[in-house]
């Protein structure tokens, strides 16, 4: 049915006639298109911004000059800006755009509150702006996809509650008894994202823009990737499946292929997905049983994921002639196909023998972007192209530009993904290759880095193509808006929902009852996602044998705490891991493999997910202090060919020690065993250790004051891995 037409008044099982035979009363109301338009415009703008930052950081990985020579635009600081911009700004606004449009029409009701809609919109944009300001300033928690500091996390929680109230208020006042499958996915998205965000954001504030996670080491890693994997599942996947179930049948003018398959798809997906997070931590210090659970459920995840893809593609049965002619449907088909590819590859990457090669490489980057660019990007583009002309009652400005966007976007995905696959395979193989004599063939990490530069250049070309397509879309859609006039309040009518309801023979299917009950559906979704969460998290926190302690491991000194925070501020974890896996290739290159007990005082954990540079967990004592000084001043002076940017500001800026005692006191509150004397005399101890580092540098002819940031960073780097080394030496 064309959305511009008024829905006909029909008597159906959802709207039975009352006992006296009178037809249900028809109620007239209006849909709110303004809020949909607002989220659509935000989606377009933030999409272009996020992709532009993406092209910049892609360029930084082969052209260090693209770091622009200042501390606010280095790869380490703006890489999280890119991920937050595309996930929460571009995709987030797209979700709300699609939900606000489809929910009103599926419920035959205006949104519960126009005021809540406005608060939601402006609150979400304010959060995005706060992220865009704080992340380049280095105000970050370092948790991937959850880098924002605690005041912004609280704001996210409040705005998410506003969204939930508005959504459930609309569902409760609906005029359509049946809750369509898209709404099931919206409900599961709301409740699961709330649980993930709250648990993963459990921090102890030091100040307004500094906090430490309550969790440490292994437990922090498990919580983060329980969150990180399921942020992909319940922010980038389930809401978009809901949008697919609504918009694809509308675009193709075909019913969903299988109602029963949609039921199986929904419940199996949300139950299985929540278990799969540990597959991000294979061969790490995470307990083996948790790793194995992640692998098993990741393999099982293929079935419901492909069930959804098949349900989407088979919805187009009998309409493939339209796909040849309709570019918007082409976007949908490529997007759903990319979803199928990514959800096959994910379980494959969770196999231990595959993960042993792929983890920490560009293969993961390729995998993520097939889903992000294809599934999220192309579905968003299709929905925008379909919605804007309808809300503005005017044809799309240019079908030719639409077609160009499709092809340049598809080429962009290919030029991005294929070089990254090649790069990933190359990395994995080069890191593991030995000579016939039994030594590493490529012992210098830079040999791999230099080999990958052409692939990184191709990746930047692909990203530029994709960005150009988004810019063409923005021009096309804004010209369309200028040519038409927004129907702010779209007139509609529907029969009133009868409160007295007598089930009919067609309602005997068990799931029908649940489809009419939003609160039981909410509770059911919550229970399903909590099962896997509790099975994985509770034993890891409660059973001490999961994280055996090591007596030699001691808390960081005050100076090392400050240095570690500088490491986090500069985003070093975006390029360097701190997790030596138990492979001969890694122990030969880096040293003894990492133990769970080494991380008990790490708030947050810094294991990393990508090795653009070498692992640093055994960095302490590997080089003299002067090496680190020169390496931060000019990386190429120590490592010719390095793509790492210089950090000259660390040599000039004074270390802020006004909050040293507060940091140690906060860490003591989350379990680090600092005593009162250590906290009280923190700065005295810090200055003493800093002077020792400064004196060692002076012996090598480097004059640097003991109060500079570089001193603290060197102290932290020289500490890494030394506790285990001391213990090993003591036992010899």
Automatic annotation (TrEMBL):
<dbReference type="InterPro" id="IPR023616">
    <property type="entry name" value="Cyt_c_oxase-like_su1_dom"/>
</dbReference>
<keyword id="KW-1278">Translocase</keyword>
<feature type="transmembrane region" description="Helical">
    <location>
        <begin position="150"/>
        <end position="172"/>
    </location>
</feature>
<keyword id="KW-0679">Respiratory chain</keyword>
<feature type="transmembrane region" description="Helical">
    <location>
        <begin position="296"/>
        <end position="316"/>
    </location>
</feature>
<dbReference type="GO" id="GO:0015990">
    <property type="term" value="P:electron transport coupled proton transport"/>
</dbReference>
<keyword id="KW-0472">Membrane</keyword>
<dbReference type="InterPro" id="IPR036909">
    <property type="entry name" value="Cyt_c-like_dom_sf"/>
</dbReference>
<feature type="transmembrane region" description="Helical">
    <location>
        <begin position="259"/>
        <end position="276"/>
    </location>
</feature>
<dbReference type="InterPro" id="IPR000883">
    <property type="entry name" value="Cyt_C_Oxase_1"/>
</dbReference>
<keyword id="KW-0813">Transport</keyword>
<keyword id="KW-0186">Copper</keyword>
<feature type="binding site" description="axial binding residue">
    <location>
        <position position="82"/>
    </location>
    <ligand>
        <name>heme b 1; low-spin</name>
    </ligand>
</feature>
<feature type="transmembrane region" description="Helical">
    <location>
        <begin position="328"/>
        <end position="344"/>
    </location>
</feature>
<feature type="transmembrane region" description="Helical">
    <location>
        <begin position="83"/>
        <end position="103"/>
    </location>
</feature>
<feature type="binding site" description="axial binding residue">
    <location>
        <position position="367"/>
    </location>
    <ligand>
        <name>heme b 2; high-spin</name>
    </ligand>
</feature>
<feature type="transmembrane region" description="Helical">
    <location>
        <begin position="225"/>
        <end position="247"/>
    </location>
</feature>
<keyword id="KW-1133">Transmembrane helix</keyword>
<feature type="transmembrane region" description="Helical">
    <location>
        <begin position="400"/>
        <end position="422"/>
    </location>
</feature>
<comment type="similarity">
    <text>Belongs to the heme-copper respiratory oxidase family.</text>
</comment>
<feature type="binding site">
    <location>
        <position position="279"/>
    </location>
    <ligand>
        <name>Cu cation</name>
    </ligand>
</feature>
<dbReference type="GO" id="GO:0005886">
    <property type="term" value="C:plasma membrane"/>
</dbReference>
<feature type="domain" description="Cytochrome oxidase subunit I profile">
    <location>
        <begin position="39"/>
        <end position="523"/>
    </location>
</feature>
<dbReference type="GO" id="GO:0004129">
    <property type="term" value="F:cytochrome-c oxidase activity"/>
</dbReference>
<feature type="transmembrane region" description="Helical">
    <location>
        <begin position="179"/>
        <end position="199"/>
    </location>
</feature>
<feature type="binding site" description="axial binding residue">
    <location>
        <position position="369"/>
    </location>
    <ligand>
        <name>heme b 1; low-spin</name>
    </ligand>
</feature>
<dbReference type="Pfam" id="PF02433">
    <property type="entry name" value="FixO"/>
</dbReference>
<feature type="binding site">
    <location>
        <position position="229"/>
    </location>
    <ligand>
        <name>Cu cation</name>
    </ligand>
</feature>
<dbReference type="InterPro" id="IPR036927">
    <property type="entry name" value="Cyt_c_oxase-like_su1_sf"/>
</dbReference>
<dbReference type="InterPro" id="IPR023615">
    <property type="entry name" value="Cyt_c_Oxase_su1_BS"/>
</dbReference>
<dbReference type="InterPro" id="IPR004677">
    <property type="entry name" value="Cyt_c_oxidase_cbb3_su1"/>
</dbReference>
<dbReference type="InterPro" id="IPR003468">
    <property type="entry name" value="Cyt_c_oxidase_monohaem-su/FixO"/>
</dbReference>
<keyword id="KW-0560">Oxidoreductase</keyword>
<keyword id="KW-0479">Metal-binding</keyword>
<feature type="transmembrane region" description="Helical">
    <location>
        <begin position="460"/>
        <end position="478"/>
    </location>
</feature>
<comment type="pathway">
    <text>Energy metabolism; oxidative phosphorylation.</text>
</comment>
<feature type="transmembrane region" description="Helical">
    <location>
        <begin position="39"/>
        <end position="63"/>
    </location>
</feature>
<keyword id="KW-0812">Transmembrane</keyword>
<feature type="binding site">
    <location>
        <position position="280"/>
    </location>
    <ligand>
        <name>Cu cation</name>
    </ligand>
</feature>
<keyword id="KW-0408">Iron</keyword>
<keyword id="KW-0349">Heme</keyword>
<keyword id="KW-0249">Electron transport</keyword>
